[in-house]
Amino acid sequence: MAMGAQYDLVIRGGEIADGTGGETYMGDVAVKDGRIAAIGKVDGSGVEEIDARGRIVTPGFVDVHTHYDGQAIWSRHLAPSSSHGVTTAVMGNCGVGFAPCRKADHELLIKVMEGVEDIPGVVMAEGLDWHWESFTEYLDAVEAGQRDIDVAAYLPHSPLRVFVMGTRGAEREPATAEDLARMRELAREAMEAGAVGFSSSRLNIHRTADGGKIPSFEAPADELKAIAMGMKDAGSGTLQMVLDAPYRAWADEVGILVDIAEACERPATFSMINGNHDVNSWRSAIAQVEAANARGAHVTAQVLPRPIGLLSGLELSINPFVLCPSFAPIADLPLEEKLAAMRDPAMRAQLLSEPMDGGHPLAMLGRSWKWMFPLGETPNYTPERDECILSLAQAAGVTPEEWAYDYLVAGDGRNMILGALANFPECRIDALEEMLKHPDCVIGLGDGGAHYGAICDASYPTFLLTHWVRKLGKISVAEAAEILAAKPARALGFRDRGVLRVGAKADINVIDLTAMHLPAPHIERDLPAGGRRLDQRAKGYDATIVSGTIIRRFDQPTGALPGRLVRSGQLAA
Hints:
Elements: E1 7-16, E2 25-32, E3 35-40, E4 46-51, E5 56-59, E6 61-63, H1 71-74, E7 86-91, H2 106-117, H3 121-127, H4 135-144, E8 150-153, E9 155-156, H5 157-165, H6 167-170, H7 177-193, E10 197-201, H8 221-234, E11 238-242, H9 250-264, E12 268-271, H10 283-294, E13 299-303, E14 308-312, H11 335-342, H12 345-353, H13 361-364, E15 372-374, H14 389-396, H15 400-409, E16 417-422, H16 430-437, E17 441-443, H17 460-471, H18 477-491, E18 508-511, E19 522-524, E20 533-535, E21 541-546, E22 549-553, E23 556-557
Parallel strand pairs: 1-4, 1-5, 6-7, 7-8, 9-10, 10-11, 11-12, 12-13, 13-17
Antiparallel strand pairs: 1-2, 2-3, 5-18, 14-16, 15-16, 18-21, 19-20, 21-22, 22-23
């Protein structure tokens, strides 16, 4: 510890990628009272100093698409995101969440989150104390907690609809003029309380735990527009939507979003994937975005830097046999007992002979053999075409079902299969480079805090750095810092973070790019009620800093919990 130190923290001699997209430069970064106090040659000493020679220094990353609505209540660590350089996470996406909510509707919202976001109902029942009803009270509950990184929240459509309309809202009945007026009023109140926007989902595969359609599905554009006008009334907020593409045409879906955004005169953002069956499927969507922005709108398309990854495994929510009738009796057994049952030749023969029953739309994708690949201990998110299970089975002279069965029961039974559901036409991700660099696209779709047993894409910052920057060299370090920090911060109006400059919030990463490594996801059983979740850690983050406090050092948590709720009225630098 330096005596008489001028700064709280000084990061010395790093290669600074400040988030502006400009060239990197060598220098120091000094922090005082949670803000960046100096950049360049810093002569004064710090109470604590980090030697960043040979390291990259970037702004903390901003993840605009997460579902930590529950985890932010019951946990102090927003993993996996905080393990991958994320210092601000935006939750409440896709129109689902836990507020506003009356006591009578707790079970309904649990079923929605269980179905849409694969969070076990028992986890939410035990982990949420529900000492809120209004959205403002929910924000207060989040603010009262302690956690490692900052969070911000959207007002979600499904809870809002049920709160205002009760059973009529849950059963997707049309909203009356009075309903619409009340939802608009509550949207305004939520923005004024600090919500960063309003979110909704139109996606067909977003279903409740019992297979029903969620309250917001197929809500008419007039309803969405009425609620969005609450943001206009408040003068703040971003519209976030998951559109029903590819089930419906991009032109129609993006057209609805743009119409609403132009009517409420607020920014808008939506999830955009590149379909596996058409390498150019995203171009019609981005063309509409470009045209809208040329007219004065502010619309961004959220993209992931790798294939959308549905993970299958015997410990996970989905595997190729989960919908077979004979699997049901063993589905909830401990892994060792499940393995013993599946290694019985009679059970193997039975499961291989059975067709799948109907079930959750994601589970129904569990035999898309052309797009399914063994993940491996060092995960390969860009496998070759001949590495798919269909090709491997043909080479081995067995059916894909037989190959997958034997792979899953091999070893300790923890093998995982990657289902590349999108962003992987012709088994290539080349188009993603253009998407990531497009001025109207913003990185996201990590879904941290959700899909606990099926998806672990929250590690995307580390993938971008190891694959696009280090391995391929198609994205520079300077571009990566802008993509991961500055662009998403701008998209949500976070003016106090995302760029390293004097006066900005001191959210910083110190990264050893040469040593960076992304191991395979693994199971943790640290949720309420002993629930399991997929986690994925990383190597290469020498330090992650939130508001000037080091929350992780050499890939391990320090125990510091400086994370706070970000309210929309507190975003000025």
